[in-house]
Amino acid sequence: MTRQPYPPASRVELVEELHGVPVSDPYRWLEDSDDPATKDWLVGQERLLETELDILPGREGFKARITELLRSGSVSAPTWRGERQFFMRRTPGQEHAVLYTVDPGGTERALLDPMALDSTGLTTLDSWQPDKEGRLLAYQVSVGGDEESSLYLMDVAFGDRIEGPIDRCRYSPVAWLPGGEAFYYVRRLPATEVPEGEEQFHRRVYLHRVGTSTEEDVLIFGDGLEKTNYYGVAVSRDGRWLQISASRGTAPRNDLWVADLEASSPSSPDLVVVQQDVDAQTALHFGRDGRLYVFTDRDAPRARVCVTDPSDPRFENWRDLIPQDPEAVLTDFAILDDLDRPVMLAGWTRHAISEISVHDLATGERVGDVPTPGLGTIGGISERPEGGHEAWFGYTDNTTPPSIQRYDARTGETTLWAASPGAVEVPAVDTEQVTYRSADGSEVHMLVISRPGAEGPRPTILYGYGGFGLSMTPGYSASILSWVEAGGTYAIAQLRGGGEQGEEWHRAGMLSHKQNVFDDLHAAAEHLIATGVTTSSQLAISGGSNGGLLVGAALTQRPELYAAVVCSAPLLDMIRYELFGLGATWNVEYGSAEKPDEFAWLHSYSPYHHVREGECYPATLFTVFQSDTRVHPLHAWKMCAALQHAQACDRPILLRNEIEAGHGARSVSKTIELAADQLTFLAYHTGLTS
């Protein structure tokens, strides 16, 4: 194939000395998206991408198959308010899931359809929370992928919007007081009240009374605290107990307070410390039986459930109910108390495979297990707020579209409550969980998905994330199934930095230990090659966000090991990442270049700073989103220019820069287009010809 020339990108002799180390940044001008030179360069990259992708075979086939497999649709577990339920469902052909309610009489109706709000498909429903009686609904929407949520209120019975928008509510919880007259929520300060460049930070907890102006909202919490703090807020079902949590950015620890709203005013709660300046994550659940249930990884990196008296919730009063398991990670729990012997359901992952156990609520004794449909992933366990004997949970695995299961504690049976609404023909695949050793001898798990009976080396995509304690678990994926059906293998490595083995596993891949994550990926690739699954000329790696950092580091550290790379919404300039998007909230995960020792960690692997001229790099496709307010696309822009300049062979370095799309939720049609482009690129450069 004759390569088109890369769009010209001037290299600036810009070198800064940081902590005694010279740091080059020749493409800093690409940080300015409004610079005419940047705009011209992006236009050139778009033309190059179109030229390159248009001649690759198989795109329409991938697009058609992904479209068909996504016709499965989706459904969520119900949220109950008395006899009224709320749930999400996306039917075949719909661009977005729709929020429905089922009235106490059994009548189902749509409450919120993003396409009815905006026929372009650019508006997303980010979150929603009914009041405790199910009469009012708080919901948040954003436009164009920017995730800048605005908060609205709806009358559920009539479907009328009664308040909003309330802006600056990104990532805001909503905690209703009984009666639906007021709620706590989180809102950023106005841009006029914060230093320039800090508009994404400075959150506060407020009390809002329905029917009043937000100018009258009462500031409850957050004044004078860390600018990057995220806040959680919740009110117990009976309205007596308020809890507020604070975490610095995405740190795996939080401070926690409670207030008795019977003893103090909701507008001036007397907050009592539960946990402060402790290196642990803790959450509270006020039980209907008067006990306080504490979900924590304090002194238990795989998590445990404790009980205590809500009137004195200090750590020294906590008593283990469900202790830490030596192998499985506790992820969730629900209480079923309309039984002769009330129970707690405990959700676990064991090497990323989900299970649910049943425990005596009084003693914690394990008394049984909840039947599940297979070896897959359980997505949360929920019960009725007023109690009962039923629980609902989501289930999926590599060949099963998401479904909702119902467990009846009286009979011990699990039954299907709601299947994904679309019928699709899912290809047969085999999934094997393998283990391998990383560079330091650590044992790492990996899921390897192939067609039944597949033999011999074959084109393979190796996917990883390895950060923020997020676990890579089995799940239905139209992209994975399309790739495997076409004859490829798809491997998902459960790298350090994730949560598959608990908080210690996470911390083994963060801050000064970040290189462990990259070593784990390299070792996964070497294992796949050594066991005959693939060869380096047939092996691609793929990752997004923190996973984009992962594959960016991998392609600069071991370019000979990989044939192709898809790097999506990545962090790549780790020296300046804190200056853009939400970067300052992640220095608790990565470190800060302002500190000499942490700068050294970051500079040791920062992909942009390790591009070497004259190296033959893998064929690389950067996919970024112009409205991404989490990770600015400048990371990929600068890295793309650097690689295009340095590339010493004819493997292409391409940029897919999508407008009116962001880091998170998007319409189905945009999802299909992106996935088809990625698979087409990887198929060509790994030799997948089916």
From TrEMBL:
<feature type="domain" description="Peptidase S9 prolyl oligopeptidase catalytic">
    <location>
        <begin position="477"/>
        <end position="687"/>
    </location>
</feature>
<dbReference type="InterPro" id="IPR029058">
    <property type="entry name" value="AB_hydrolase_fold"/>
</dbReference>
<dbReference type="Pfam" id="PF02897">
    <property type="entry name" value="Peptidase_S9_N"/>
</dbReference>
<protein>
    <recommendedName>
        <fullName>prolyl oligopeptidase</fullName>
        <ecNumber>3.4.21.26</ecNumber>
    </recommendedName>
</protein>
<dbReference type="InterPro" id="IPR023302">
    <property type="entry name" value="Pept_S9A_N"/>
</dbReference>
<feature type="domain" description="Peptidase S9A N-terminal">
    <location>
        <begin position="7"/>
        <end position="418"/>
    </location>
</feature>
<keyword id="KW-0720">Serine protease</keyword>
<keyword id="KW-0645">Protease</keyword>
<comment type="similarity">
    <text>Belongs to the peptidase S9A family.</text>
</comment>
<dbReference type="InterPro" id="IPR002471">
    <property type="entry name" value="Pept_S9_AS"/>
</dbReference>
<dbReference type="InterPro" id="IPR001375">
    <property type="entry name" value="Peptidase_S9_cat"/>
</dbReference>
<dbReference type="Pfam" id="PF00326">
    <property type="entry name" value="Peptidase_S9"/>
</dbReference>
<keyword id="KW-0378">Hydrolase</keyword>
<dbReference type="InterPro" id="IPR002470">
    <property type="entry name" value="Peptidase_S9A"/>
</dbReference>
<dbReference type="InterPro" id="IPR051167">
    <property type="entry name" value="Prolyl_oligopep/macrocyclase"/>
</dbReference>
